[in-house]
Specification:
- The chain is α/β, with parallel strands linked by helices.
- Helices cover 37% and strands 15% of the residues.
- The strands form two sheets. It has a seven-stranded parallel β-sheet with strand order 8-7-6-9-10-11-12, sandwiched between helices. A six-stranded mixed β-sheet has the order 2-1-3-4-5-13.
- Helix 2 packs parallel to helix 11 and helix 5 packs across helix 7.
- The N terminus is likely disordered.
Length: 342
């Protein structure tokens, strides 16, 4: 009995120590959540403002909607608004630039590095949206959808001798990252004759859709060429006049990547000569200047949209959620999607 009593007293003495230990272990996490760091949103996030603020506050941040105003924020959030020296001067306490976008070439990385500021982005929020528009533009060109609507609204009925099918055509995918792979997967549902892919490095994930070939072979053999390369120093102007001249009059070039990956003056000239057709969502300068030659291309040679490939309700909400999570993880010393480490 004495041994049992002693054991019982020992257990009672141990319980508080064990309990206190658990409390101490929990405090750092509670402290991180309780500490509210200020973030400045310097560009509209393309979803309702209250939704964007809710997503950020849910991650423990104090939000300042500072589209033009200076702030003492720990981080700033942008989409495509340039982050320059002048912008950083308005936010002297900034330690993180959170880009709610895949591209980050509008952020002055040298200025950020000099100031000890890290940069994160959102690499894969719009994969389905972009891939779907690629197929959509191909269908719009092949089935003459905008042209048919113009004919109908002008009082006509018979528009042309007929459109074309994707079935039994050769589809070329330039850039076989996540979006390129998803685009290949969607096109494969139409029963193409072959899918060709190009990448600077071999990608085994593409092998189940088709074969990887040279860029020249893609342009020589493809009926539809869809562009999905990121814009950087190596890809700027990569789609040259000489490549586009390899396309045939019934070929279709789709660009849902970035405008500057194409030689746009050459593109406008070749389209005006009816050397091929195109579906274009991106342009060298955005918004497109009214006097740009690309806007003077014959209407039946190109279907154009104002850079909306990424812009679906689902993708924009997903983008904000990933941005907020990127910031939370960075604050918790578990960074991800870092494109510049301070």
């Amino acid at each position: 009995m004495a041994m049992l009593a002693a054991g019982s007293r020992a257990m009672r003495r141990l319980r508080p120590a064990s309990f206190v230990g658990k409390q101490l272990q929990a405090r750092p996490l509670l402290g991180a959540r309780a500490f509210s760091q200020k973030v400045a949103v310097i560009q509209d996030q393309q979803i309702p403002k209250n939704e964007a603020i809710d997503q950020l506050t849910a991650k423990g941040f104090d939000v300042s909607w500072s589209l033009d105003e200076p702030s003492d924020a720990w981080a700033i959030v942008t989409v495509t608004t340039p982050v320059t020296e002048a912008v950083l001067d308005k936010h002297p306490n900034c330690k993180l630039v959170a880009v709610s976008f895949t591209g980050f070439n509008h952020v002055d990385l040298e200025a950020c590095k000099k100031r000890g500021i890290s940069v994160v982005n959102v690499p894969a929020y719009s994969t389905d949206s972009v891939a779907e528009l690629s197929v959509g533009l191909a269908l719009a060109v092949y089935r003459e959808i905008p042209a048919g609507e113009r004919t109908l609204k002008a009082g006509g009925w018979a528009h042309s001798a007929g459109g074309m099918e994707i079935r039994d055509k050769v589809v070329g995918i330039v850039g076989i990252g996540d979006i390129g792979l998803r685009t290949a997967e969607l096109f494969s549902a139409f029963g193409p004759k072959e899918i060709l892919g190009w990448s600077r490095r071999p990608k085994s994930a593409f092998d189940k859709f088709g074969k990887q070939v040279s860029m020249e072979e893609v342009f020589d053999k493809s009926d539809i060429v869809s562009l999905h390369v990121a814009l950087n120093a190596e890809t700027q102007g990569i789609i040259s006049r000489s490549l586009m001249e390899r396309l045939r009059p019934d070929s279709v070039l789709i660009n849902v990547a970035r405008g500057p990956v194409c030689d746009q003056p050459a593109l406008a000239d070749l389209l005006s000569q009816r050397r091929f057709r195109a579906g274009l969502d991106v342009f060298h300068t955005e918004p497109v200047p009214a006097d740009d030659a690309i806007l003077k291309v014959p209407a039946d040679q190109a279907v154009m949209t104002p850079h909306v490939a990424y812009k679906t309700i689902e993708a924009l909400r997903r983008r904000m959620e990933i941005t907020a999570t990127n910031m939370r993880l960075f604050a918790d010393a578990k960074p991800r999607n870092v494109v510049l480490e301070a």
